């Protein structure tokens, strides 16, 4: 049954759109105050910027109409918002109609020779088979923050040709998204705290796609008495803060491998203590300083005190120009070799400026590759430049399937101990080591390769 006072109040807020909003509000608590930001009849309170795609209103819907030969077009609110909960319905009928909604978006009218530039957080609407709808993209700035390779179960939430209900919470430095009730993205990031809300019509490359439409309706917002909705699933959290875990991560078994202040849990490889020089901890950052570019001969690698078998490991890294380093796993320290300890390696490298990118076979020594064994299948647009922070991730499943990610995008997978894996080993520098990479457990290692490399947000979850 409708709550009579709430239903009447909603009707006063806005004609056509409000009826639907009020019906959705029947299950809301009495402290929730939803306000329509689209009146259902006009575009009052909105303005189109950047591109030349058209927006019109029909049957209580905002319709964005694609135009060839123009950049992305955004219909942005004139009002700026800081903390809010936003809900809206979105429909896409054609594969060319990539879209999204800016949240805390920024607009610089003087950029691009006076044509303007919209940049900042955008929650995606992806009609392609990639299926990253609900993920978080940093428009015209850092690129993808939360692609749905991080939450593959949410790839089925968005339905082409149907109305999809989005919910976005931007409260403090946390941004969460849902589509049709499915938990999608969870990001902790403090780059923007206030900005526009904007509806996107993406640029199109094919003139035959001109005129395709993207539909929005029931756009409503809460800005008062906000109550964050906790995620309940085992969802990966992208946290760009400094060595912190959310309550969800703690509940799901994540722990920090680096506390941001001490070397607790780490020692030098083949040593009983942390290196006395070369490795530094300052302002929450773990750094190995540059030396002569040699492999583990100046200050040495560091390894975890503990050993791990099946795990999910995430880490942020920042390399200097031309740098070489790596994160190794299943390191046993039993081989008795000189130089860097032996283990499977997530390669960290400046592909453009370090010669090792051209060595090995078919690019298998490039960034995020399984070093000297398997090449990372990555696009340059998903990689940030030296001096910027990238996020690496390694998942070792209990069944020995292993996955590498760079900035949330999966770039390779393999199965330890499989015939294919052993064939790769037989063709690599590791063929001299018996049963290489097949130890049941091992240490995690951060490599000193003579170049300056920084790490933070090193976290791990053991898998059963």
Explain what you see:
- The protein has 2 domains: 4-222, Exo-inulinase, domain 1 (Jelly Rolls), CATH 2.60.120; 251-462, Jelly Rolls, CATH 2.60.120.
- Helix content is 8%, strand content 37%.
- It contains 5 helices and 29 strands.
- The chain has helices spanning 4-13, 15-24, 111-114, 247-251, 419-426, and strands spanning 35-36, 46-50, 54-58, 61-65, 73-77, 84-92, 99-108, 117-125, 136-139, 143-146, 164-171, 174-179, 182-188, 196-201, 213-222, 238-239, 254-256, 266-268, 279-282, 285-288, 302-304, 311-319, 324-331, 344-349, 390-396, 401-406, 409-415, 443-446, 453-462.
- Strands 1, 3, 4, 6, 11, 12, 13, 15 and 16 form a 9-stranded mixed sheet that branches. Strands 17, 19, 20, 22, 25, 26, 27 and 29 form an 8-stranded antiparallel sheet that branches.
- The longest helix has 10 residues, at 4-13.
- It is elongated.
